[in-house]
Structure to design on (283 residues):
């Protein structure tokens, strides 16, 4: 079945966004004050909750539908080959060269919540590739963060401190062609303060391995860094890709968004700079 279509709004006024953030944009006199960075997920609100006891575990290959795992300290990687698997309150430290967490063909509805995922400076991407929800996660030390395949939701998560290797162009989130994607109320920081490295993008969007990007909603996030913080490929085929009510830092190399007017992409005036609450109009 077709996923529900995402309908954009005007971005004007000072209404409250679904996340509880003030809605940016609108006439200058109606703009809210910029919220503090602590409004978005960070070390206190993502990853394994403080005080959680974790049991040691090695790598996991999950083949049982409906399996629920909780309270594991996984030194290794996770391959999911079953439906409706849930992993919560767990730490995953994976040093293989591919992915820390992998969903295989026919997997649906993997849920990862209150987890920490470390790529140990080795993994090419934290999660690959689709049919999962990531919620309240602390993701770090991988070359790329999660890949956005079809039917993915990234919510209330902090993705930061990417690993730089020769030839890499790190993105906290990336899609190369997919459908039904939600990226909501996350803190996406490709900029690595310890090395002053902007990396490539907070969100890289293209259709290089799939026919199109369709029904993608990006809202209420804080994004900082990248060559362009939002990288839109000029050869992308897009249908109903919406960016609204996002707040942006200034640690980019060239600008906030590349190719903002690409057909099929809606860039609302409610996308603003964090320091001024002024709409991003200089691309």
């Amino acid at each position: 079945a077709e996923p529900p279509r995402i309908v954009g709004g005007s971005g004007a006024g000072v209404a409250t966004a679904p996340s509880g953030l003030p809605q940016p944009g609108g006439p200058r006199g109606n703009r809210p004050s910029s919220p503090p960075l602590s409004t978005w997920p960070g070390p206190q609100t993502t990853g394994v909750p403080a005080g959680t006891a974790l049991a040691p575990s090695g790598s996991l290959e999950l083949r049982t539908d409906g399996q629920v795992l909780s309270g594991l300290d996984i030194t290794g990687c996770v391959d999911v080959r079953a439906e409706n698997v849930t992993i919560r309150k767990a730490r995953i430290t994976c040093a293989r060269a591919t992915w820390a967490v992998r969903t295989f063909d026919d997997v649906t509805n993997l849920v990862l919540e209150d987890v920490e995922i470390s790529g140990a400076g080795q993994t090419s991407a934290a999660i690959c590739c689709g049919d999962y929800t990531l919620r309240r996660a602390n993701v770090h030390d991988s070359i790329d963060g999660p890949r956005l395949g079809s039917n993915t939701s990234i919510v209330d998560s902090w993705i930061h401190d990417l690993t730089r290797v020769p030839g890499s162009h790190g993105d906290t989130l990336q899609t190369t062609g997919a459908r039904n994607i939600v990226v909501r109320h996350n803190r996406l920081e490709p900029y690595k303060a310890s090395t002053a490295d902007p990396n490539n993008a907070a969100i890289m969007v293209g259709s290089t391995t799939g026919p199109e990007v369709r029904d993608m909603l990006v809202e209420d996030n804080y994004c900082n860094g990248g060559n362009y913080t939002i990288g839109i490929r000029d050869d992308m085929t897009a249908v109903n890709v919406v960016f609204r009510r996002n707040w942006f830092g200034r640690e980019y190399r060239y600008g906030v968004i590349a190719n903002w007017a690409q057909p099929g992409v809606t860039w609302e005036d409610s996308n603003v700079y964090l320091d001024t609450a002024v709409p991003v109009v200089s691309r």
